[in-house]
Design brief:
alpha/beta, Serine Threonine Protein Phosphatase 5, Tetratricopeptide repeat, Rossmann fold, four-stranded parallel sheet, 33 helices, 10 strands, about 55% helix
């Protein structure tokens, strides 16, 4: 018997072991052939296949590389090499081999299918779809290729076309559960949640333990605000797969939507226990804990979430807000910068490029060295609060430009003489006078000038228009000799968080019993009707002058506040303005206050003129009455 026939027999024996699924023995048999014939292409090729199947991907790569050296024009070897690289998570290298296979045979359907999947993994959705479309055209009955094509089209947001692929796959193979599942995903992305639920239920009829389908029934029900049904769906899924982390997480979200905070926190805890790397669960657990007053643990959970996803700007911001609320300014301001990466926290500034990062500077002195543009941000109250930084900045930067809300231009020009003050939306030529690397959002400067409580001067810094103060004072004087007290009872624009810090005007009844002339500071539309209704129902008059409080020039409101004897307000712009003017300011703070007002105490470092009254079970009007009226 010659060596060739011996090699052939050994190769056939190895192939038989391979076919029987005895993979380790097959690898050993292929290696036996290669000892006798190291360059045997078939032994190298099939050995690579068997090694890949048992998970020895590094060994498989070595074998297929040797095979390709022996036969560099083998399309099958290039396709095999691509599959091994894909299994190692190296999609780009895999795609290179699939393309080499297709260069040898452009109608190689397997390579087209594999290339499409690799490109989809790389996020190249359109090119992936092109490869998969050709694979389907070559083999129209290839159901897996139709499903892969649908997935690629989903990546390209072509949900209707993807749905057609999944429908075609189901028509050809009705019992293929993954096709029903992917069909549900396409319907969900199209907003057809009821139809998606039907598709997921069809999936479960074929594969009852498919947790993702049960989970998606729940998330579709949640998208329809059917949270009670969603909770039932999640629980049914978790009964079958109790360790399914995302099911616990989504159960928690629906429980939270129903107002069942304790149950939601328990579900989030189960989610992170099942999967400690589920960032969303840590984040939502943190939010729930903080909302429940368990701030320290909430901060710890925010940190865990951020460690898992350092690019989560919303998580960074929320962590920063909680640290700031604790008075940890040095760490808090650093995370507060997350607001600049999220669309919901900086308004009106999309066209303004500001690239100066104070976090890279060595200290306040480093901000000197040329003209600087400071850009006001967020709401009117935020711009006023952060304006306490402007004197610090002006001491370092003689050439300062301020870009602020148009309503604040006059007030800020008077309060900060020497600074060039322009409104948001100002002419582009004004913006171009200062390069982007010398432009900064005002809140970002706090990390230079407010790193600890002792850095806050707390002194007044706004200067009202003396002529308007005098004219408003005369108007107030005409009301009689009693003290003139401004009140603001509603903050924000109606979100759940803002409603929490708002009161009805009649809630101030315990204060109205004391002698005073009450003056509305509200800039909203409803107060005229509210004040009239209060007078008709109770005889208590609250004077409301919308020509002042609803003026497009906040100088008018500032003058009114400056002319008053006392300001009593919820947490809002009026409170910031009053304290920044140095007015006697008393602020009603909700149980879960915004970070600006801290978590405890009767004062905050921003303003020496502001006294806080924190709600516990009831609003503390008695404390205000004692302080303002002496009992």
């Amino acid at each position: 018997m010659n060596s060739f026939s011996t090699t052939d027999q050994r190769l056939q024996h190895a192939a038989g072991l391979h076919r029987d699924g005895r993979l380790k023995q097959a690898v050993a048999a292929y290696r036996s052939v290669l000892k006798q014939d190291p360059g045997n292409f078939q032994a190298l090729y099939y050995c690579a296949m068997a090694q890949s199947q048992i998970g020895d991907l590094d060994g498989a790569l070595k074998s297929i590389a040797k095979a390709l050296k022996r036969a560099p024009d083998s399309k099958e070897a290039h396709n095999a090499a691509g599959n091994i690289y894909a299994a190692k998570g190296r999609a780009e290298r895999a795609a290179t081999h699939f393309r080499k296979a297709l260069a040898l045979d452009r109608d190689f359907a397997d390579a087209l299918f594999n290339l499409g999947n690799a490109l989809a993994t790389m996020g190249e959705a359109r090119e992936a779809a092109q490869a998969l479309e050709k694979a389907v055209s070559l083999r129209p009955d290839w159901v897996e290729a139709r499903i892969a094509l649908g997935n690629a089209l989903m990546l390209d947001d072509k949900f209707d076309a993807a749905l057609g692929c999944f429908d075609d796959a189901i028509n050809r193979e009705p019992r293929l559960f993954i096709a029903h599942y992917n069909r549900g995903n396409a319907l969900k992305r199209l907003g057809r949640h009821d139809d998606a639920i039907d598709a997921y239920r069809a999936t479960l009829s074929l594969k009852p333990d498919f947790a993702e389908a049960g989970n998606n029934i729940g998330t579709s029900l949640a998208a329809l605000d059917r949270h009670k049904e969603a909770v039932e769906a999640f629980r049914e899924t978790l009964d079958k797969t109790p360790g399914y982390a995302r099911g616990h997480y989504n159960l928690g979200r629906s429980q939270m939507a129903l107002g069942h905070a304790d149950e939601a926190m328990a579900s989030y805890r189960q989610a992170v226990a099942a999967d400690p790397e589920l960032e969303e669960a840590w984040y939502n657990l943190a939010r729930a804990l903080v909302e429940n007053g368990e701030v320290e643990e909430g901060i710890s959970c925010y940190r865990k979430a951020l460690a898992l996803d350092p690019d989560d700007s919303t998580c960074a911001l929320n962590l920063g807000l909680e640290l700031l609320g604790q008075g940890n300014f040095a760490d808090g301001w650093r995370f507060y910068e997350g607001r600049l990466k999220g669309s919901g926290h900086i308004n009106r500034f999309g066209a303004i490029a500001a690239t100066l990062d104070p976090g890279t500077l060595s200290g306040p002195e480093a901000i000197a060295g040329g003209p600087l543009m400071v850009i006001g941000e967020q709401g009117l109250g935020d711009e006023i609060m952060f304006a306490s930084l402007i004197p610090d900045v002006m001491a370092k930067v003689p050439d300062l430009t301020l870009v602020v809300d148009p309503r604040l231009v006059g007030l800020f020009r008077r309060s900060f003489p020497g600074a060039k003050v322009h409104p948001h939306g100002t002419d582009k030529t004004v913006m171009d006078r200062v390069p982007p690397d010398r432009r900064v959002f005002i809140g970002s400067l706090a990390q230079l000038f407010r790193r600890m409580a002792g850095d806050f001067p707390g002194t007044p810094y706004l200067v009202p228009d003396p002529d308007r103060v005098a004219a408003t004072g005369e108007r107030l004087g005409a009301l009689g000799p009693d003290r003139k007290i401004g009140i603001m009872w509603r903050g924000g624009v109606g979100t759940e968080r803002e409603l929490r810090r708002s009161l009805a005007l009649r809630d101030f009844a315990p204060l109205f019993a004391h002698p005073a002339q009450w003056v509305s500071l509200s800039h909203l539309d409803a107060p005229a009707e509210e004040t009239e209704t209060l007078y008709e129902d109770t005889g208590h008059r609250v004077h409301h002058w919308p020509e002042i409080t609803q003026s497009d020039d906040f100088d008018d409101t500032a003058a009114l506040i400056a002319a008053l004897d006392v300001v009593i307000s919820v947490t809002c712009t009026a409170a910031h303005c009053a304290a920044a003017l140095g007015a006697d300011t008393h602020v009603l703070v909700p149980e879960r206050a915004e970070w600006r007002y801290g978590q405890s105490g009767a004062a905050i470092p921003w303003y020496g003129a502001m006294r806080l009254y924190r709600r516990r079970d009831e609003w503390p009007f008695d404390g205000i009455a004692e302080r303002v009226f002496g009992g």
